[in-house]
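quick one: manganese (II) ion bound model?
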Amino acid sequence: MKITFYGHASLGIEIGQTNIIVDPFISANPNAESIDINLLKADYILVTHAHQDHILDVEAIAKRTDAVVVSNYEIATYYGNLGIKNHPMNHGGKWDFDFGTVKYVNAIHSSSFPDGSYGGNPGGFIITKGDKAIYIAGDTSLTYEMKLIGKSYDLDLIVLPIGDNFTMGMDDALIASDFLKCDKVLGYHYDTFGYIEIDKVRAKAKFDAELKTLKLLDIGKSLEV
Ligand code: NI
Ligand code: MN
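yep, here:
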């Protein structure tokens, strides 16, 4: 799997010939000016929850690419009503897609649409393909639920929010890494707005001190698992 950072909580994931986009909030992110949403390939768009900073570009990308939106029932139905292909899930459920298996798991957060309407409950995704497994936490606090994920999966990479204020911060991300039994963390959901600015050097040093790796990718850069 190749994971590309598109800024904030937006990711691209390539698995074989399949292109997946997660939580696209790109066109209004001044830090992501180098990324043109009209050039992104997408077969699937995974959406963790309905907040604006996770769904902004879903409709435009889905309509251009004919991608399938995978999310909780309420969000999938919302996009279905716009004529967009979708696959509804709910917490604890998994599905074998053509590219691999996706499980929708709990997150502690909220999930209203920008107009205040109900966006179901927020979640994260575990994506597995062969012997590779990654966990994308979405917006969440630290939660004991992560221990269950660590028990069930041998994770190669965990993607955790580290910006604090709206989600867990770097100290709780360290504990999450213990719960999830994975020392390789890709940090996201930081530096986009004032409330979530972090000291990146300090964050990396905290992980180094516990012999863990905190990856912070420049926008447009990728890593492989
Ligand atoms: Ni959110
Ligand atoms: Mn968010």
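The first helix runs from residue 52 to 55.
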